[in-house]
From TrEMBL:
This is NUDIX hydrolase domain-like protein. One of its GO terms (molecular function) is hydrolase activity. It comes from Microdochium trichocladiopsis. PROSITE patterns: NUDIX. Residues 1-111 form the Nudix hydrolase domain. PANTHER family: ADP-RIBOSE PYROPHOSPHATASE (PTHR43736), DIHYDRONEOPTERIN TRIPHOSPHATE DIPHOSPHATASE (PTHR43736:SF1). InterPro entries: NUDIX_hydrolase-like_dom_sf, NUDIX_hydrolase_dom. Gene3D superfamilies: Nucleoside Triphosphate Pyrophosphohydrolase.
Length: 111
């Protein structure tokens, strides 16, 4: 299953479903560390493994942000700590709801 989070109604792109994510901080030692940190910050889930890359190929996906900054986006498969449970803790300023969806549910656009 894939974890999808729904953006808060008052945020940009309100109520849009997306995978948890974010950017690298300058002090992060690696992009994989950034991925695990962002997952924890947005959901409270602990990553126990990061990889493989699932989108963007080796070079990632390039685009310009609204401010004009060039961004390279990578998406990874992340395994979470099942012993800690799958209780997701959302920040209401960022996300409104979550769902653990199957690939089939996503393809049928049920979420």
């Amino acid at each position: 299953r894939v974890l999808l989070v729904q953006r808060a109604p008052h945020d940009s792109m309100p109520l849009r479903w997306e995978v948890p994510g974010g950017g690298c901080d300058e002090e992060d030692p690696s992009i994989l560390y950034s991925c695990a940190r962002e997952l924890f910050e947005e959901t409270g889930l602990k990553a126990v493994g990061v990889g493989p890359l699932v989108r963007g190929g080796l070079g990632g996906q390039f685009f310009r942000s609204r401010s004009g900054k060039l961004v390279c986006k990578f998406q990874f498969v992340v395994a979470v700590d099942l012993d800690a449970g799958l209780r997701v803790k959302l920040d209401p300023n960022e996300h409104f709801a979550y769902i653990w969806a199957t690939e089939e549910e996503v393809r049928r656009k049920e979420v």
